[in-house]
Structures are given as structure tokens and as C-alpha cells.
Design goal:
The chain is of the alpha/beta class. 33% of the residues lie in helices and 20% in strands. It has 7 helices and 5 strands. The chain has a 5-stranded parallel β-sheet. Strand 1, helix 3 and strand 2 form a beta-alpha-beta unit.
Amino acid sequence: YWNRYFSAKMHEPPIPFVVEALSKIPEFETRPTAIDFGCGVGNETLVLLNQGYHVIAVDGEATAFEFMRKQPGFLNLQQNVTMVHSSFEKLSYSHLPMVDLVVAGFSLPFVAQHDFNFVWQSLTAKIKPGGYFIGNFFSQDYSFDSKFRKSMTFLTEY
């Protein structure tokens, strides 16, 4: 499943809401650091790199990083990426630095309900005061294969 998904993502632009939100963040005085949480093939990672961020790219699928390395322009920027292969639930949050930005486009809903509070609190605790979070959540109405749906977290909008 993931290889087919990643192959398709290689030819897609970065997530529009991430690009739009990034355009609203003022420039940092020093080199900013970001976590791309659920980085996939690195479409958003590349945007961050091109904007001067050091990026900690996290994904639970090792093949995601193989695809990322094949992205046009990635080799010239790879020194500014730390790749972390880990599930979100088992990620060693204590070893992550404090960051200026967390990007979690289409990743947090893949955390099981019984782990969601831990992951959410651990991840957002890594954002420096005055830092930013760009992400989204799925509502119950979001269509998903039942294979994944039973192990995902869906939130209700209030």
C-alpha cells in the first residue's frame, strides 16, 4: 500500500494549506528548526528546506525516506535534514530539540485513540514559546478504508 501511495505523492505539489500557512509566518532571526511529522516523500520537507529551515523529518515508513531522497533538489539540501524512522507512538520525544514549527499535514489522525493524548502533548511540548503548528485533523465524515479507520483518531469540530 505505502509504496503505491508514496509513488503517487512524488508527483503532487506540497499540501496547499501548509504552503499558505508558511507564507504567513514571519521570518526568523536565526535558522529555524521544524519537525515534519509524517513527512512522507518530503514534499513539505523540501518547502521548509528551501525556506531555510533545518528539518527533522519523521515517518513510520522507512520507504518514505527512500522516496524523499529521490526528490528533485533534495541532495543539495540533505545536510539540513535529520530523518527519524519511528511510529509516532514510539518516537523518543525527549531526544527531539525544541523547534520553531511543527508541520503535521494529514498525519495526526493515524495515531490510535488510546495514544493520541500522549502523542499530541509530547509533540506540542516541543514547540518553542511563540512557535507555530500547522496541521489538520479528520472529522468522522472523512472517508477512509476500514483497514485504517479502526486504528485512527477522528475529531469532531466544535
